[in-house]
Amino acid sequence: MTEAFDAVDIIRIKRDHGTLSPEQIDWTIDAYTRGAIADEQMAALNMAILLNGMDRAEISRWTAAMIASGERMDFSSLGRPTSDKHSTGGVGDKITLPLAPLVAVFGVAVPQLSGRGLGHTGGTLDKLESIPGWQAYLSNEDMLRQLAEVGAVICAAGTGLAPADKKLYALRDVTGTVEAIPLIASSIMSKKIAEGTGSLVLDVKVGSGAFMKDEARARELAETMVALGKDAGVNTVALLTDMNTPLGLTAGNAIEVEESVEVLAGGGPSDVVELTVRLAEEMLACAGVRDADPAAALRDGRAMDVWNRMIEAQGGNPRAALPVAKESEVILAPADGVLVGLDALAVGVAAWRLGAGRARKEDQVQAGAGVRMHAKPGATVRAGEPLMTLLTDTPDRFERAREALAEAVVIAPEESRPAQQLIIDRIA
Ligand code: URA
Description:
Blueprint lengths: L6 H9 L6 H12 L5 H14 L3 H13 L14 E5 L8 H9 L5 E5 L9 H5 L11 H10 L2 E5 L6 H11 L7 H15 L3 E8 L8 H17 L3 E8 L7 E3 L1 H11 L5 H17 L7 H6 L2 H12 L13 E6 L4 E6 L1 H13 L13 E4 L6 E2 L4 E7 L5 H7 L4 E4 L10 E5 L1
Parallel strand pairs: 1-4, 2-3, 4-5
Antiparallel strand pairs: 5-13, 6-9, 7-11, 8-10, 8-12, 9-11
Helix pairs in contact: 1-3, 2-4, 4-9, 5-12, 5-14, 9-10, 15-16
The structure holds uracil.
């Protein structure tokens, strides 16, 4: 087959700060997906994009080309609005679990395609798999049936969705090019647009435990993704939220499910409840539902009813006991004062080292492993009180988890209470 362009010319254009034409972009994504552009050529192009950027029109076309590389799902037969949420990932971020059933209470279908954890951030599928019997893999037909019957589904993305992204993401992961905003935005949005949701709320995390450590870059990512969504006809809104401190009081798998169920029962940590309710309000507004009261649906058990049906529809037993780690170790507060810092990255790395996460895609996670926190920033603590409990099945992991947490905790005198702001901004 005669190729329309030469990969080296395309690389040179971006290396020299040029702009790719729509035809060049379409060819690049297609040729890479079918193997006509080699990995080393795509790696060079990715690095040129990371260093020199892309303009709005290029990012939009790149995203469209990635969508065109695979199938597009269609939920129009459901006859009701659809809404999805995507988080850029953080520590203790279990919000999808209570959020999907909560939004479904109000007649909006939630098709939530989720992933697994890699590195220090947890994965929604890993958490749900700690529920005995629960299955992550559904056919498109089963997903549609569950959306019609239950209203919410959380499952693994099928292999047919944006295959170009799967190949590109794996390459970026090993070539230091994950952090390019045009590549992150197009990667996330191609999957969300191909999934066929009518509206989308993005939770863009900022802080030590997030992908984006500084607010300016997180804002740029959010603005780019919102524009891509709108260009594709998906009603899209983003919240910028804090990820310097873990969300809630648990980071792991089964312990995060347990905390999500507390939220669905009308309790749970206030930050998890606040973000769940706010994201539900945004999703419902984007889907055109007015005057809904998601906080009430958590208190009165309606969201829990949908949760139970959603877990059962995927083979899980929502009432079964969750796995518990075989071993635990407690970390005590070293001094009296106010806890002013509990570093999200350190807690995430500790949970990962305890076995809650994986270093390579093939690794197994431990369902019971993780970190249970007993205090959050703003709390008064006394020397010798338990601050955290480390959980694992393999006690030789405790030492490295403790090392990760060595600098994580900051205790200050009584008067220096921190100002907490979980939701930093809204970008529409
Ligand atoms: N998540 C994705 O799906 N893609 C990225 O590039 C980064 C995070």
